[in-house]
Amino acid sequence: ETSPHLPAPTNVEIYSYNFQSLLRWSPVPVENGTVLYTAQYRTGFYNEWSGMGCGQTPQTQCAFPPEMSRRRWTILLRLRAELGPLSSPWVHTPPFVVDRNTTLGPPKVNSVSVRPDSLLISLSPPFTPEPGDPLQYLVSYWENSTSPTVKKLNQSKTLFQIENLKESTLYCFSVQVQLKIYSGHLLQGEQSAPVCHRTALS
User: Fold this and answer.
1) What domains can you pick out in the chain, each with its CATH number?
2) Which CDD domains match (predicted)?
3) Cα–Cα nearest to 122, from 155, 99, 78, 83
4) How many whole angstroms separate alpha carbon 88 and alpha carbon 64?
5) Residue 70: partners with Cβ closer than 8 Å, 6 or more residues away
6) pLDDT of 47-67, one tens digit each?
């Protein structure tokens, strides 16, 4: 039975990072007993609710199972608290599309090779791209001086060179990814922490 005495979970939100998504919430406080939580989902096309693999869990988060990982699907979620025979009202989340609502992390800098006039940089993307993902790397770089001028490069390869640099000079760079999704919407990733290297002496 739905009980007005068992409050519904609060702060229910979807957290999504690099296309890995989970539902999380604040625990429901009760005097005694263990509150369990049940999360269900449906897609925008179907009216039927399905289990997410989190039925009667004591946890306060639930990861999206693989069948929910389609990036373009519109997903609706609902969650309720259960205590013995009592159930709270369902809490519904707004429609969620992973493609639009995920946060992209910074790319990983694997290696930097220094030359007198250039830096050769090798990156890996923050997530495993799907075939045909138009992934771009935005590179900002600057000479580490008192009034640095930031220059930008736009690159689709994971191995590239920053050229026309001065020799034996400290340069810093920072990278982020951009992904154009099917709707034409542009997902802009987080900026990596600056990495600094001194160019070689010729």
Assistant:
1) 10-100 (2.60.40.10), 108-198 (2.60.40.10)
2) FN3
3) 155
4) 22
5) 98
6) 899 999 999 999 999 999 988
pTM of the model: 0.86
For residue 163, count other CB atoms closer than 10 A to its CB: 11
Residue with tokens 């771009």: 136
Residue matched to tokens 């989340």: 93
